[in-house]
Amino acid sequence: xxxxxxxxxxxxxxxxxxxxxxxxxxxxxxxxxxxxxxxxxxxxxxxxxxxxxxxxxxxxxxxxxxxxxxxxxxxxxxxxxxxxxxxxxxxxxxxxxxxxxxxxxxxxxxxxxxxxxxxxxxxxxxxxxxxxxxxxxxxxxxxxxxxxxxxxxxxxxxxxxxxxxxxxxxxxxxxxxxxxxxxxxxxxxxxxxxxxxxxxxxxxxxxxxxxxxxxxxxxxxxxxxxxxxxxxxxxxxxxxxxxxxxxxxxxxxxxxxxxxxxxxxxxxxxxxxxxxxxxxxxxxxxxxxxxxxxxxxxxxxxxxxxxxxxxx
Length: 312
Known about the structure:
Elements: E1 4-11, E2 15-22, E3 27-34, H1 36-40, H2 47-62, E4 67-70, E5 85-86, E6 89-90, E7 109-111, E8 115-118, E9 124-127, H3 130-140, E10 148-153, E11 158-164, E12 167-174, H4 176-186, H5 200-213, H6 219-223, H7 225-231, H8 240-260, E13 267-271, H9 273-285, E14 290-294, H10 295-311
Parallel strand pairs: 1-4, 4-7, 5-8, 10-13, 13-14
Antiparallel strand pairs: 1-2, 2-3, 6-12, 8-9, 10-11, 11-12
């Protein structure tokens, strides 16, 4: 394995993941740090210093290295607000939109742009960080560059993107993860402490099935069941969160399928293994195949593609 060539970083709202890589994108070392939100809350934050604090052990050993960053670090609350690229866009063209925020000539930093579109609900929509994951997914799974595919990137704000021959035509965002967190932390519907029981998976699937059986019911009606079923003794307090998760993720998936219909299967789900498994389970309940792609690996593959394209 050759020596260090660049640093890849996914600097999101909650976390920073940095990887020291060789020229082929193989990881030589990892480190992590605080997310953009935490850093932005610091008075007079110096992003260059913050990055240097984390990477100095690497640059001391290997010398100055180019750093490629994606995620919320390129937003209005980050280091530099990098303009969104309008859809439809070919992902291979994103490397031309990288911008450098650093005034320090010895610190070679480039930040990826996000994507913007007018979604199918006739509303403005944006993503930042997911575009790099999609680019990486195309590198990991080249078959996605041909034909029409539906991609799902689950998270705090889940993205559903329509891909045609390697071009992101459009996408839509769903506040699935954020709504789950808000209800769990600030409502009386789910107030369990401790870990979910071994019935977690069965409870999740039960909620998904219930959602399908009552397709005309409002999600606002069904969510209240997280409390009423506990009061009736039909749902344990430790599994109420699993029931809520099944309702929200189920509605997320079913809503996307209604909106886009199903392009060439399987649907590609890009994210953490825990989330991709849940979304794949909901797809399976509708007889739809889903291909799971690790989000961290996809992000690294996308950042590596930026490095290689920029290198020429």
